[in-house]
Amino acid sequence: MDESKFCTGCGKPIEPGMQFCPQCGMVVSGSAADEQFKENEKEIRGILIQSRRNWLIFFLAIYAIPVIIAAIIALVDASSSANAIWENDSFQKWLSEHHISMTVNDIQNYITGAATMALLSGICACVSLVCVYLRKKWIVAVIACFAAAILCVWSIFGIIIGFLVGWMIITSKDVFDDWPEGTETEE
């Protein structure tokens, strides 16, 4: 019985024990070279997944940590910041020119509200960051990232970046250990 196989690339016969097709150079399926190729492919995939995970961690941390710190400072210092704004002559002039009625308490409430939204945005980004770091809860990471972006109302740039990072998380299901392999949707 003829034990030759046929190349899956060009269809030419291949003798037993060959690693590569002599005609087209394709790796012979089931050979030692094929197994090495599959092992290398798996290793490269792992490196790419880790790299994507590292970038997600970087983007989330570079946003979350400074925003949380700034929000806490703004919340703690809301009263003195409101007083400093209120006592500014240019601000008072602007109010009178635009016929706006505002008190120092209104300014403090605005600062407190904005700082609270910033703090919530930073916390949501931290939740997403922890999920990515732990490689768990893909859907929580996605929702938390989009919530952080939406709460970032003070910065259109922050909103856009938040949605881009959210999209990066959506397309990075393979980064998460609790997302079963083979369930990725074809795009």
Q: Can you count the beta strands?
A: 2
* Residues in helices, as a percent range: 55-70%
Q: What structural category arises from helix and sheet content?
A: mainly alpha
Summarize model confidence as the mean pLDDT: 86
Low-confidence segments, given as residue ranges, are 182-187
CA radius of gyration: 28 Å
* Widest β-sheet, arrangement of strands: 1-2
Shape: rod-shaped
Give me the strand/helix succession: EEHHHHHH
N-C termini distance: 45 Å
Strand content: under 5%
How would a crystallographer describe the biggest sheet? 2 strands, antiparallel
How many helices? 6
Descriptive account of the structure:
By secondary structure, this protein is mainly α. The protein has a domain of 114 residues. The protein is built from 6 helices and 2 strands. It starts with a strand and ends in a 17-residue tail after the last helix.
Which helices and strands, and how do they pair?
Blueprint: E1 5-6, E2 13-14, H1 32-76, H2 78-86, H3 89-97, H4 104-134, H5 138-151, H6 156-170
Antiparallel strand pairs: 1-2
Helix pairs in contact: 1-4, 2-4, 4-5, 5-6
